[in-house]
Q: What sequence folds into this?
């Protein structure tokens, strides 16, 4: 008898404001693609992120920057689905769409950086996230605060300690990953640099830098 387990599609989602996308996002995306053996990682800009102020540039422009940043990188997709939905951009709704698209057996994983993870219990319908997907948390330099009590309560016994263990089920688990290239790059830092007339070379892909300059984005705070 063969002990081969059936393999199911592994699909990731990395949502964000991407105001603008930077190499912290993109290098993490490539390393996630490899570490999790993903068929596809959907990078999805939120037109109206519920837990923060209005983004600096329009959703269509942030999408264009993301497309330019991804270029032809295998396995990464600039996904515009939230731009077609009215109202606040809830990840639970996006995961429900992806679940519908890929079916019950797909290993669907929502990826968040540690900073975003610390606020997960305040998201819309946090329990529903785990009914639809696994949550994968990636390290981010400068963010290692302990988990708040309500988050620990939400997580319960969900945490596993390996990719293979996570893949035993289609959803409901939590995995914390430390990717090889952790980068202390933030969109806030990039916006500040641009407003101050400073260089963002090697913090964003050159195609993104070109577009920012061409469209004169983020010139002032
Ligand atoms: P801002 O500075 O405007 O808050 P940001 O750099 O945190 O932006 P977002 O678009 O808000 O970027 O992030 C989208 C997702 O990517 C979040 O889950 C965030 O934690 C994660 N992320 C952002 N930057 C990094 C990074 N340098 N390393 C790892 N994860 C990151």
A:
């Amino acid at each position: 008898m063969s002990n081969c387990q059936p393999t199911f599609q592994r699909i990731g989602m990395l949502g964000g404001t991407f105001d603008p996308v930077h190499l912290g996002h993109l290098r993490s995306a490539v390393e996630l693609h490899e570490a999790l053996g993903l068929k596809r990682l959907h990078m999805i800009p939120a037109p109206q992120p519920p837990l923060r102020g209005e983004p600096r540039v329009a959703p269509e422009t942030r999408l264009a920057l993301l497309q330019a940043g991804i270029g032809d990188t295998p396995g990464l997709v600039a996904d515009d689905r939230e731009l077609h939905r009215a109202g606040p951009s809830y990840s639970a709704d996006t995961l429900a769409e992806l679940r519908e698209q890929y079916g019950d057996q797909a290993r669907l994983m929502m990826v968040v950086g540690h900073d975003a993870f610390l606020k997960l219990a305040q998201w819309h319908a946090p329990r529903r996230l785990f009914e639809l997907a696994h949550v994968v948390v990636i390290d981010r330099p400068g963010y290692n605060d302990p988990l708040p009590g309500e988050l620990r309560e939400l997580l319960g016994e969900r945490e596993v300690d390996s990719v293979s263990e996570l893949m035993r089920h289609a959803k409901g688990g939590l995995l914390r990953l430390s990717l090889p290239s952790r980068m202390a790059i933030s969109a806030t830092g990039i916006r500040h640099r641009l407003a101050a007339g400073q260089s963002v070379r090697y913090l964003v892909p050159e195609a993104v830098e070109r577009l920012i300059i061409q469209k004169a984005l983020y010139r002032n705070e």
